[in-house]
Amino acid sequence: MKNYIKFPEISKTIILFVGFQIVLISTCFAQSTTKAEKIDDLMTKYSEYGQFNGSVLVAENGEVIFENGYGFANMEWDIPNKVDTKHRLGSITKQFTAMLIMQLVEEGKISLDKTVSTYLDDYPKNTGEQITVHHLLTHTSGIPNYTSFPGFFQNKSRDPYSPKEFTKTFADSSLVFTPGEKFAYSNSGYFLLGVIIEEVTGKTYEQALKERIFDPLNMNDTGYDHHDTILKNRATGYEQMGTQFKNSPYLDMTIPYAAGSLYSSVKDLYKWDQALLSNKLISQENKELMFKPHIKTGADAYGYGWGVGYQKFGKGKDSVRVLAHGGGINGFNTLITRIPEDKNLIVLLNNTGGKSLGNMSHAISNILYGSTYQMPKKSVAASLMEDISKNGIKSALKVYAEIKDSEEYRLNENEMNSLGYQILRSGKIEAAIEIFKLNVEAFPESGNVYDSLGEAYLENGNKDMALKSYKKSVELDPKNSNAVQIIKDLQRKME
């Protein structure tokens, strides 16, 4: 909220007014300090429990009230995370891709209702003439998500590709639904937007970002990440195994491209937020088009590169618009949350992967609005991982039975899912199935947990159980187009 102070009309009130200003400033400072202390207490506890290792920045009414680093940017050299530490952003990249597209729309070089075939002559016409730029921006294209392809991480994620070469890995795929029909998150769509940007501008995606966004905003700690570049203050990505950490698997950064290739710092993302509060990059009209809720994604909606929702905080009766997007990439997960009407911002960049940043962001939002918030609890998933590493899955199942309902522990669907995938990728398929089964038991109304269980069964060669799990996933979440496609493929192979 904005506070307006009228200047005094007669000179004899000046001394009183100045005194009032000092009291007001002191009060505001005290409030900010109190909020900052609460945020620090919150994040310190998350760090203590091994649930956050990264950098944080919080702004209120456009001004930074808190910024800090927790844990280590590099554990081998005990180099701490700081506010200028550079983290891989993952899918936060998508909002920058969307901004480039909207700049080109404003310049008349791209039309949102024109098709992919308008800009890419060599893209298959049977699908390219159906899919518009708007469809790509809103995840309504029907193009299957390449990161969900079977064996993708094992077989393709380590190899370098040019953008047009990699496009061929999904361009010939059948659409999983008619474009515009529904929402299905797809990295493929944003990858394709990057190729369109290069075709229209005649420059690489990286060059376009630098010239059109990063240089004008002095975002000197932001860029396209390359493994071979010597980059000062770059964080190392880790994966957590219980209380232990290991280096995350290698990923060639040509793979995420316009869907997830960028790195940045919390301080640079504050600059980005400030630019979005102005019309420095695009007009107000086109900026609002970016943030418009174009398609429902469940309780919330999706704009262009941003999730859009409304939420009540504190004692206010009205909901405020919340713009947010998370990112996950090998060894990192990230979250940026903006409440533009109040000029509030929360940036969380974590370099140990797979953490529940949404819970942290929600607690910080409640602190900003003077509402109650929850302090973190110990993680059931982390405790299970620790026991699996030491004693195996049978022992871990006993530990689960003992702690799942404890007041000291939190059972979180996403954390359990991440645990299952960590175990799956380590080759312990049977153990991963047991973890996914626990998640299904705990969250029986979630389509995602059945999807993950189905993937593990499929990896184990159990097509009957995989098919059953995927069908249940689609029953609970009809928008799960990836599961729909897998069901069709399985039924065809089982005939």
- Named at the architecture level, the CATH assignment of the largest domain is 3-Layer(aba) Sandwich
Question: Number of DSSP helices?
Answer: 20
Shape: globular
Q: What percent of residues adopt helix (DSSP H or I)?
A: 40-55%
Let me know the number of strands: 17
Q: What is the CATH topology descriptor of the largest domain?
A: Beta-lactamase
Q: How far from one another are the termini?
A: 63 Å
Low-confidence stretches: 1-30
Strand arrangement across the biggest beta sheet: 2-1-15-14-13-12-11-10
CATH C-level category of the largest domain: Alpha Beta
Q: How many domains make up the coordinates?
A: 2
Rg value: 24 Å
Largest sheet: 8 strands, antiparallel
Superfamily (CATH H level) name of the largest domain: DD-peptidase/beta-lactamase superfamily
Structural class assignment:
alpha+beta
**Whole-number mean pLDDT:** 90
Fraction of residues in β-strands = 5-15%
Plain-language structure description:
- With 495 residues, the protein is α+β, with helices and mostly antiparallel strands.
- The protein has two domains: 87-368, 3-Layer(aba) Sandwich (Beta-lactamase), CATH 3.40.710.10; 378-494, Serine Threonine Protein Phosphatase 5, Tetratricopeptide repeat (Alpha Horseshoe), CATH 1.25.40.10.
- 46% of the residues lie in helices and 15% in strands.
- The chain has 20 helices and 17 strands.
- It has helices at residues 14-48, 93-106, 116-119, 125-128, 133-137, 152-155, 163-171, 187-201, 205-214, 257-260, 266-277, 284-290, 357-368, 380-391, 393-403, 413-425, 429-442, 447-459, 463-476, 481-494; strands at 54-60, 63-69, 72-74, 79-80, 87-88, 223-224, 238-241, 244-247, 262-264, 295-296, 301-302, 307-311, 320-329, 332-339, 344-350, 378-379, 409-410.
- The strands form five sheets. An eight-stranded antiparallel sheet has the order 2-1-15-14-13-12-11-10, sandwiched between helices.
- Helix 2 crosses helix 8 (187-201), helix 14 runs antiparallel to helix 15 and helix 16 (413-425) runs antiparallel to helix 17 (429-442).
- Mean pLDDT is 90; it is low at 1-30.
